[in-house]
Amino acid sequence: MRKFAGLPPRFWLERDGQQIAKLGGQHVALAAYLLTGPNSSVAGIYPVFLPEVAARLHVTTERAEALVEDLVRLGWLDFCEVTSTVWIKGTGNVNDQLGTTDFRRNPKWLAMTERYLSTLPASRLVDAFRRQYGLAVD
Hints:
Low-confidence stretches: none
């Protein structure tokens, strides 16, 4: 479980945050939860349990699924229904969290991320994440 997570202050000023805000309060709450929730990771890719998310947001599981789908349509999030894994692709992603896009210069991040990804179930999201950041695809 993550001990600390932050929401970049500019999040609400940039396109992603503004588009999410236009969708309404439940979408804002979901985005904030996904960025800072107890299961989130600095990599921005991690499993979620939608009934738990629903309970935290005080909505039905069906509503939580619809909220996730809306954020996927925006392009801010990707979701694998098979493994119930999310990947934050927009503002607030790993580039924002670490302040870089050249992860090869950060061997600690590479080692930590490789270890972390090995704990996730194999999925199209994990493979896409690996390709995106130049990591070996299993």
